[in-house]
Amino acid sequence: MxxxxxTRFAPSPTGSLHVGGARTALFNWLFARAHGGALVxxxxxxxxxxxxxxxxxxxxxxxxxxxxxxDEGPGAGGTVGPYFQSERRAIYDRWFETLRDAxxxxxxxxxxxxxxxRKPVTMNDLVCGEVTIDYRDDSNxxxxxxxxSDGSYVFxxxxxxxxxxxxxxxxxxxxxxxMNTPKxxxxxxALGASPPSYAHIPLILNADGSKMSKRDQGAAVAxxxxxxxxxxxxxxxxALLGWSPKDDAEVFTPAELVxxxxxxxxxxxxxxxxxxxxxxxNQQHLMQLSPESLAAxxxxxx
Length: 302
Description:
- It is a single chain.
- By secondary structure, the protein is an alpha/beta fold.
- The protein folds into 2 domains: about 5-200, HUPs (Rossmann fold), CATH 3.40.50; about 205-300, Glutamyl-trna Synthetase, Domain 2 (Glutamyl-tRNA Synthetase, domain 2, Orthogonal Bundle).
- It is about 35% helix and about 15% strand.
- The protein has 10 helices and 11 strands.
- The strands form 5 sheets. A 3-stranded antiparallel β-sheet has the order 3-4-7.
- Strand 3 (about 105-110) and strand 4 form a beta hairpin.
- The termini are far apart.
């Protein structure tokens, strides 16, 4: 591993912090801490119609309650800001001109499309292994829009520019983004930059195998403090949603998770959300509290 480790969590402030997003933030935080690196928090707030101050506060509060501290970003400062995408338009304009000067974008129906290099693109994901997309058939892989007709930029472009500008070394995100990555690799190459390493972590399903929604029990991070869960117990539970210590141990403090966490031990198969397991882990963490700490934790519910 060359260079400093820099990971990022990039939420959109359009709703409450979901356990899936919190698990992504946790894995990024654990990996950064395990390697003496930094976690960057950037806010993808370009959807003006759906972004709300309340959702932004819920994300910050949820991460704070879990103890997931970011090293750069809103409230923490840093040298590669702004950390809100809505404030980065000039940066995107500059990199768009790089693509235009290189002949890699063209206008079509008022929008600007990125001209893919027509070749197979292979990525070596740190969790999912080798994945190849063949761009030689443009009927299956048409050139993608990077700037809309109204002048706004699409996710793929700003995502790559931000990772490049913020010197992100490892992108750890949900498996639903896996097939976006070859597109991003093409953009990095066109911009003359080396891409980060990628690790796509498994989706979280309900216990019955159905897709977890924001309305399901345990989905919203804000639910946990209201129900008397300890932050360390929830962090412990979320870590086990896709990561395995490769032994029989199940109860970990955050510090123990930092020491033991590795991407090599992240499973490829989807994680199953088990509410009873979460309650059991909370009980184990409560039992480890001193009488004084237990009384303080119980006081709001008496």
